[in-house]
Amino acid sequence: MSDSPDVHAVEIRGASMVFNDGGKGRVAALDDVDLAVRAAEFVSLIGPSGCGKSTLLRLIANLLEPTAGDVRVNGKPAEQARLDQDYGMAFQKSGLFEWRTVAKNIELPLELKGWDKRRRAERAQEMLELVKLPDRGEHRPWELSGGQQQRIAIARALASHPPLLLMDEPFGALDEMTREHMQSELLQICAATNTTVVFVTHSIPEAVYLSDRVVVMSAGPGRITDTIDVDLGRNRDDDTREEDHFYQKITEVREALRGLEVSAGARGIEDR
Amino acid sequence: MSAGASKRGGLAGRAVKRAALLLAALGLAAVAWEVYKAIGPEQGGDILGWRIIPKTNDRVMPHVWEMLAEFGDPAIGSGDQLVWQVLLGYAWYTLRMALAGFAFGAAIGIVLAVLMTRLRIVERGLLPYLVISQTIPLIALAPQVTVIRGSLDLPQWTSAAALAAFLSFFPITVSTLRGLKAAPAESLELMNSYAAGWWTTLFKLRFPSALPHMIPGLKLAATASVIGVIVTEITLGGLRGVGFATIDYSQKVTSQPASVYAAVFAAAALGLIMFGLVVASEALLMRHRPREAT
Amino acid sequence: MSIRSVIASIGPPLLFGVVFLAVWELIVAVFDIAPFTLPAPSAIWSAFTERFGQVVDETIVTGINALIGFLSGIVLGVLASLLTVRFRWIESLLTPLAVAVNAIPIVVIVPILNNMLFGTTSQVPRQLMVTLIVFFVVFVNVSRGLRQVSATHLELMRSYAATPSEILLKVRVPNAVGYLFTAMRIAAPLAVITAFVAEYFGGVQSGLATGVRNSLNGSKDVTWAYVIGASALGLTFYLVSSGLERLHGGSKNSG
Description:
The complex is a heterotrimer of chains A (about 270), B (about 290) and C (about 260). By secondary structure, chain A is α/β, with parallel strands linked by helices. Helix content of chain A is about 35%, strand content about 25%.
């Protein structure tokens, strides 16, 4: 674990990802992508289908190896970071094991790290309280609602207190109201744990609400076209969703997605 | 949890309902039997010159009540034991061999499935032969197996267990293979993100998620193992089980025609018992899982 | 299909087969196993080629029995299933019989039926037994296919004020076709095995089982030659019906 302020939590340089190179279905999922994420930063990746945002996330997670370029997590090569378990991951499907209790699901990464029984149980309970489901430990995943299952998935992802959290559209399958509620919960959790987050999403309001920075990507081949700073401050809540500044940022992101340039003066937007 | 209690009540209720339906069905079958017996020709009949209508005389088609009464009759050649007692002994003997065969078959099946999951070349190379192996008629295989057993000087029941294993390993292999491969992709990614090794992933993820898929294969294997033992008894002799009883009683058919059917009932009941054992294990192993909509 | 993919799919089985046969041959040679105990692949092959004509003849006999029974069973099974749509009680009658036939091993059913139908002079009893077994498999699957139609489809047809026969034709039957192919895939190898077992227990002295039985006390290589015939027959039946199923579009339900 590195606490030098000069080392980024995630540093990607010139990463390219080509599938099926030399074959008929050659796909350039990512082309020469650079990205740097600071510690405790919340960064969203947004873009149309095929822009490579999920691929980029998987490069960080070392679930894929880039065909070119360099991926460093926590100052180490991505593979080492994975072997050292420096991150936790959450997917759109909560992916909880239906044959385990909720608590045992949270304990899974800790088991694999070789923690002893008592320590695991304590940490699991701690995480349950963090996600505000303190008495659901002995329940089965299918007894919980979709939103609750995602909270458990997040609890599992953070169980070993990793410095980095990678999320691939975790709220995509939830209805709008639950989704907004989960977004607030997530911000609180990340503030409490000071975790760096890289978050992939399809939803513009979600990206703006959650992030310090929104990274806009385009498809064919996947590239980063824009980065928009969201300066809504650290204490966001439901009222934030109704502020003018919030809507302005949403518009900024939307237009970046449409490929238009954001002209600072003409719209009176504070652009940093 | 009160929900658990109502779940358990529901399970028992369903089992009772199914048992009642089965009994009603058997009753209907008995009625159909008697109806045919009443209207059918005693010496068999012809359709368009082909003798395809079964005979209905008492020797070949006893009345249903005669068959049931047979269980309480004294068994010829077995001292003063009643038929049902003799059959019970035979059934227990067959059941033990079937259980042994099932266990071997399950062990082989699971090992093969794991091997084929680990190495795709093994799957591609071996699976066609496993399919072909099931086209070999067991009756033809039995003598070969027994001769080998004899030369290896193993006890007689191992032939039956081996043939039972032969019939039961295949459905277990196929269903376990399907189940091991059916682990959800995100969960595999998750285990990968934990840098978990292949064998760790096998035990913590693949096997538990394979269990629901394995159950139908285990059910098929259960009845198959009984069939395997019975075939061995019938074709090889020397084993005193239910299969032997059907042969033995069919030779005494002039004096006790219904006894053959008694033995047949016992054979059928045995298959159902093995099946029931798997169902009971399923209820036990899957009790914490969400109920699947069938 | 590229050369590479052909090699990839044929290569491993070929390799495994060759290795298996080689090891078998070696074991017989090294341990000096008598042909009575376990014949070597080479012995089996020569027995097979010597008797090739006979094996083929017997295979045809068994094959025809199996085929006739298979087709009759399908026809009768489909008819019975269609009747069940109109007359629900037929299903309540036949299902327990299906359960019974399923629970009792074929080796037990065959001798009993042999008693009930005599026929030392024709192949018909054997064909009847195959018909019986196939009938139940087809009936159970096809009636399920006719019955388990999506509720949404039924609602749709009701909104069109469709008559029961229209529903049958336009919704139930197409749904059931997939189940029919599945039943055929399951019943095909069963048909061959039933024909084989039926031959084994006496009657006309023809068919593969007769060949097997007559060679049991001698060298096993002849037995295996007939077994090859039986296996090839069973495999052919399976592959053809499996192929038909795939042409139709994959299996609906393994019942």
